[in-house]
Amino acid sequence: MTINWKNNFKEGKELVLATSSRSGNPNANVVISLGFFHDKLLIADCQMVTAIKNLKENPRICVIGGYFRIKGHVEIFSSGKYFEMCVQKNKEYKVRNAVVIEVKEVFDLNKVKIVN
Predict the structure, then answer these.
(1) Can you list the alpha helix ranges (DSSP code H) found in 37-80?
(2) What is the pLDDT of residues 6-36, one digit of tens each?
């Protein structure tokens, strides 16, 4: 039985989001997934000050969900459809930005291999 890796990143799942500044200073946050839209993972920035600073300098990101690691590129939106989706899905905290992740690589940490 093959597990769909996206199940580990579906809406409501806790994820570990890792960023790095341009100079290589790392940072990690625990975030809540808002799910996939147009094959891009959506995260609401409510308290990610250092992560957003890093992503503006270096848009590459690594996210862990369950035993899967994804790597990709980020776009940050402070308005528009992705931002409005974050606001609608997150009533508990004030949304500052929508973080949209285009997945470039999926790695199965359990099997130690890249997933196609």
Answers:
(1) 49-57
(2) 999 999 999 999 999 999 999 999 999 999 9
In this structure, the chain runs to a length of 116
Give the confidence band of 110 by pLDDT, cuts at 50, 70, 90: confident
Tokens 């470039």, residue located: 104
Place of tokens 């130690």: 112
With 0-12 / 13-18 / 19 or more C-beta atoms within 10 angstroms meaning exposed / middle / buried, residue 42 is buried
Fold type of domain 5-109: Pnp Oxidase; Chain A (2.30.110)
Task: For residue 66, give the nearest of 2, 1, 4 by alpha carbon.
Answer: 4
